[in-house]
Design a protein that fits this description.
about 475 residues; mainly alpha; two-stranded antiparallel sheet; about 70% helix; disordered N terminus; disordered C terminus
Length: about 475
């Protein structure tokens, strides 16, 4: 077994490749970025499409609708996350025994097919058939984040990880920014709401074919990467490479008894509560409290996520710069996460005191609350790779599974609290709860979170070797 350490500068071969030089690793990052854009466009597009599918007069009256009730619409929107949650951990496990690249290609391809079939499902099968399609999309997209995390750990050197990792995950924000207004335009077009599913589904299928030919599990298996770039990447990674006779086992017990992992799980759940509560409830708040019509709603709802996407670039650059200046990885991650959690928490508390007759400042505070959350991309989001580069995919599947449960129940809890949609008092309760969760979960991450590679990162299946490794 060869343990690869972070000593890129000591290898002569790595000197021939500048960290700033574009290479195959940047192509992988770009392709994974588009995977996030397309995946989140498919995910978010339904929140606009379901309005037109329930009442065509809101978009194009010439396209058929199905008169779904608010409960049926809510069920369809949440159905994606049921499939998404169920397959999180299985997807993380499949990554350990099969090709990450092929799993991601297969998942995105089938997800695209389900999207293309949504109109036929609605036309011939109604509510139940659409529900099944959305569950299927969730099942297929469950591999997205675990796969990307696993590929990040294999392809991106630690000193480039904040910038390139943030660029990839920023695709989720750009996908949200694109999907909200663009889906509204498509729904109102002559083709109507079916075009939302045709376009995003077609893009998912095209992407999967491209990544099958241009992507790869590791630099060592890529067909066109130069030897210099390959050595630059491999010599800088904290990953244990094994041959066929010496396999790493997935340390399930060690993972679930690890304090830093539980701090990471709690941080991820806190992010999920705040992010998805605001994403799902903001359009309703803008409509019911501030009185924005549906034409303005999509653009204003997307504005905070555009701010988050833009802010992700300077935040990621500063994180990598701090690491280059020998600031510890733990401090860098925790500082970024604190900005991402306590900044929005303060903004949400202030939001509860802003009078509704001043919608300008309300929108500004919402932009700040979501925009500052960009720090999470350099905080807890990369912490999976910090703790265990070898098992980053399975760690993401575990934390994302539990966070997805929060994404399902948080909007429901908020919906029960806000029984009167026009009540600013009830909305304030939702904001205060979200602020409290942001504060508490980040405090736990600050106290018990770590950013050092854990001792169980390279455990082999041989128990004797495991004991010796832990002793060392």
């Amino acid at each position: 077994m060869i343990a690869i350490k972070t000593e890129a500068s000591s290898d002569d071969a790595t000197k021939n490749v500048s960290p700033g030089k574009l290479g195959v690793r940047h192509l992988q990052v770009l392709l994974l970025f588009f995977a996030m854009v397309i995946g989140y466009s498919i995910r978010v597009g339904m929140s606009v499409a379901v309005v037109a599918m329930s009442n065509s007069s809101t978009a194009n009256p010439e396209i058929e609708d199905y008169g779904w009730t608010s409960l049926e619409r809510a069920s369809i929107l949440s159905s994606f996350f049921w499939g998404y949650t169920i397959m999180q951990i299985p997807s993380g496990y499949i990554i350990t025994i099969w090709s990450t690249q092929k799993l991601l290609c297969l998942g995105m391809f089938i997800c695209g097919v389900f999207s293309l079939l949504t109109y036929l499902a609605a036309h011939y099968g109604g509510f139940i058939a659409v529900y099944v399609c959305r569950v299927g999309m969730g099942l297929c997209q469950a591999c997205l984040l675990p796969s990307i995390h696993n590929l990040l750990s294999k392809w991106v050197p630690p000193l480039e990880r904040a910038r390139l990792g943030t660029f990839i995950y920023g695709g989720a924000l750009l996908g949200t920014v694109i999907a909200l207004p663009f889906s509204g335009l498509l729904a109102a077009s002559s083709i109507g709401w079916p075009s939302i599913f045709y376009i995003f589904g077609g893009l998912a299928i095209c992407w999967s074919i491209i990544f099958l030919y241009l992507g790869s599990d590791t630099p060592s298996t890529h067909k066109t990467i130069s030897f210099e770039e390959k050595m630059y990447i491999v010599s800088s990674l904290e990953i244990t490479h094994t041959d066929n006779e010496e396999k790493l086992r997935t340390p399930w017990k060690e993972i679930f008894t690890s304090t830093p992992i539980w701090a990471l799980i709690i941080a991820h759940c806190g992010q999920s509560w705040g992010y998805w509560t605001l994403l799902t409830e903001m359009p309703t708040y803008l409509d019911s409290v501030l009185g924005f019509d549906i034409g303005k709603n999509g653009g204003i709802s997307a504005l905070p996520y555009l701010a988050m996407w833009i802010l992700s670039f300077p935040v990621s650059w500063l994180s990598d710069y701090a690491l280059k200046k020998n600031v510890s990885r733990s401090i860098t991650r925790k500082l970024a996460n604190t900005i991402a959690y306590w900044g929005p928490a303060a903004a949400l508390i202030v939001l509860g005191f802003v009078p509704i007759d001043n919608p300008f400042w309300t929108v500004i505070i919402l932009v700040v609350a979501v925009g500052l959350n960009a720090g999470s991309l350099c905080g807890y989001q990369l912490n999976h790779i910090d703790l265990s580069p070898n098992h980053a995919g399975i760690l993401m599947s575990i934390t994302n599974c539990l966070a997805s449960v929060i994404a399902i129940i948080a909007p429901s809890i908020c919906g029960n609290i806000v029984s009167d949609l026009s009540s600013t008092y009830l909305w304030s309760i939702v904001f205060y709860i979200s602020a409290g969760i942001y504060f508490a979960t980040n405090l736990i991450f600050l106290i018990w979170g770590k950013a050092e590679v854990q001792w169980w990162n390279d455990l082999k299946s041989d128990k004797k070797n495991n004991v010796l490794l832990r002793a060392v």
